Amino acid sequence: MDDAAPATTAIRPSPPRLSPSTAILLAVWVGLVAGYLDLGAITLKRFAINKEGSYRTARDFPWTVPTGHVVLALAPAAALAFVSWRRPRWVPLRAASMLLATLAFWAALARLPIYTLAGLALAFGGGKLFSDVVSAFGFGLRMKWTRVSLAGLLGILLVLFAASTGWRTLGEARAVAALPSPPSASPRNVLLIVWDTVRASNLSLYGYHRPTTPNLTRWAEKGTVFGKALTPAPWTYPAHSSFFTGHWPYTINSQWKYALDAPVPTLAEFLTMRGYQTAGFAANTNCCNYETRLDRGFIHYDDYALTPRSLLSRTVPGKWLLEQLLIHIDPYERKWVEIQSRGAAAINDSFLGWLGRRRPDRPFFAFLNYYDAHDPYIAPAGSAGRLGARPVETRDYQALIDFIGADKDALSTRDMHLIYDGYDDCIAHLDDQLGRLLDELERRRILDDTVVIITSDHGEAFGEHTLVGHAHAVEIQEVGVPLVILAPGEPTGRSVPTAVTLRDLPATVTDLLGLSEGSPFPGRSLAEYWRTSPGQAAARLASTAFSEKVDETVLQTPRGDSVVQMSVVAPYGVQYIRTSDGTEGLFNLWRDPMGMTDVLGTPEGNALLQPSRKLLLEVLEQDAGTVEVEAAYLKAFRRDLAETVKRGDAEKLSARDR
Predict the structure, then answer these.
(1) Does 47 have pLDDT greater than 90?
(2) What HEC string does 7-50 produce?
(3) Do the Cβ atoms of 246 and 505 come closer than 8 Å?
(4) How does strand 494-501 pair with strand 468-469?
(5) Chain centre to alpha carbon of residue 84
(6) Side-chain-facing half-sphere of 654: CA atoms under 13 Å
(7) Nearest in space to 633 (alpha carbons), one of 546, 576, 575, 551
């Protein structure tokens, strides 16, 4: 009997395991790839989805978005690295690579308008393919394909950094070096401070019962306070467009066009050409970012913050994670995640840092936009609850966050107190930071040569006229704003009761700088009010206080019925409001500062109505709108108003004859 051959058992090699260093390398690799995929999604949305045609993120996104994805990928990789360090045989390389790649690719796909599960399925497929490659070829610095591919990915990141942030930094340095000599031996600086969403009626400077603005009140004694300042539009972008150009919104089409590309100069452009070093610091990245072109002429423009928090919030999952975490840890910081921005203290620090680095032989024009009083009305810990109800629980902060979109009838009394008191707390915090800033500038002796303008772009409604928020109407709650001007060498302690418009800011600045000759800005200088003896000022030294609200749906309706609203406030304080459907309102703001009682139909209203109509018609006949605006609504609005004025004159004449 033949001996049987001995049986042999094949020994299968165990699958490669994950090492801590490989986990980190995997995170960097898949994070960069996911980041570049996200760049593609951002670009796709900019050209094919976003209605305003913008990227909706910081201009440094070509390198910060991939970096943010790497940071996100490092979190689970660190956990895997720890497990593989403590239990080297527990984590297979194939499984780890598939998990990290799936999570990273899913994070990139979150940008696109697709169902979550569909994105996860696509990401899983990509993760499976990547894990197959890793299983077949291995992964680590000893593998040539890993070294070459990782070097290529990092090289792309370096190129993107150089092409965005690096190129912009170099361009700024060149622009500063090329500045011409200033127009005079001792020119004045200009500091324009805009408190976003702050209505005048909630400031103690204007008689409000709560001490919201002690610092503004203190500093206002050194300048001039305008008691009835009105913004040209009830929301940020068109208001700022007028601040910078001196043009009404309808003449530059800024009510629904999201980029300031009108062929008119901006104040920053004008001053830069005259040797001013210009800088903007904008917390409102929704309406004042670089894509709106409000940065035109500014050599340095600082909108989206670059911090660890904002770096993560450049990515969709990072933003979501921060929002869930910070509402429990620091709700004030959570406020800034959505718009990748920062609060008033950080804006001050950025400006003061720039001020310390600027050329000392050049005057400056700086624009500071603060967003703290915009919804959600969450003040920092030191200010929350200072003037009323204090948010305590997470539910309180969530109510503040959800307020604008919430059913107002379903809100509790406590919720309403939290909201209104929170708004006042935010204003008080802004006032604290204003005091800190101006005190520091005074310590540096910069205020001796600086014109300071403190104002707001629009107000806020809290149930008046059944409205909440802003951008809805031109009632005084939304267009009545503070205005204080501090000018070296000019009279102090003055108060101007006459209604004025912020459209006149560019003309005022050029006048105070001695640059009115050859100034391209329409409007009149508000300085005329303090250059005239008290009690002797003419009624109309400045432009008519005109405001306009136009909803973009006017483009989809025959004449924009019920979506176009215009207002003028006469020098003596009577506000006339007219809507495109012919509805009118008349309010005596001296006796009724909140504009709650319509005097139409009363003897007073009957006497004031026709002059008010003519005042609005005068504004609309002075300047034509853009071709698009005229066709959409302005031509019809002007014609209807003119016919109403004509009928009113005829009725008045007929009554006189009788």
Answers:
(1) yes
(2) CCCCCCCCCCECCHHHHHHHHHHHHHHHHHHHHHHHHHHHHHCC
(3) yes
(4) unpaired
(5) 46
(6) 6
(7) 551
Q: Determine contact, residues 237/549, Cβ cutoff 8 Å.
A: no
Structure confidence at residue 125 (pLDDT):
97
Distances (CA, A) of 74 to 21, 28, 104, 125, 548: 12, 7, 10, 21, 50
Is 379 within 8 Å of 431 (Cβ atoms)? no
Question: In the block, which residue shows the tokens 């393919």?
Answer: 129
* Residue recorded with tokens 């409205």: 467
Q: Does residue 402 register a pLDDT over 70?
A: yes
Six-digit token string for 581 = 């459907």
| DSSP code per residue over 85-125 | HHSTTSSBHHHHHHHHHHHHHHHHHTTSSS-HHHHHHHHHH
Residue 451: its H or E element: strand 450-455
Residues 229, 204, 341, 438, CA torsion sign: positive
Q: What is the DSSP letter of 455?
A: E
Count the Cβ atoms, other than its own, within 10 Å of residue 444: 12
Between helix 61-86 and helix 316-329 the angle, nearest 10°, is: 70
Q: Which amino acid is at 639?
A: R
In tens, the pLDDT along 30-44 reads 999 999 999 999 999
Sequence-separated (6 or more) residues with CB below 8 Å from residue 295: 268, 280, 289, 301, 303
Query: Is residue 138 left, alpha or beta, with left meaning phi > 0 and alpha meaning psi from -120 to 50?
Result: left
pLDDT at position 539: 53
Q: Provide the b/e sequence for 342-354 (b: ≥16 CB within 10 Å).
A: bbbbbbbebbeeb
**Number of neighbouring beta carbons within 10 Å of residue 321:** 16
Q: Quick one: CA dihedral 100, 102, 103, 107, positive or negative?
A: positive
* Euclidean distance between CA atoms 44 and 51, whole angstroms: 12
Q: Which two tokens stand for residue 213?
A: 């603005």
* Cα–Cα distance for residue pair 559/654, rounded to 1 Å: 32
CA 35 – CA 455 distance, rounded (Å)? 40
Indicate the burial class of 279 (C-beta count within 10 angstroms; 0-12, 13-18, 19 or more): buried
Going by the DSSP 8-state scheme, the letter that residue 361 receives in this structure is T
Answer yes or no: pTM beyond 0.90.
yes
CA distance 206 to 455: 13
Residues in the chain: 658
CA separation for the pair 104, 33 (Å, rounded): 8
pLDDT at residue 3 greater than cutoff 60: no
| pLDDT tens-digit map of 601-654 | 999 999 999 999 999 999 999 999 999 999 999 999 999 999 999 998 888 777
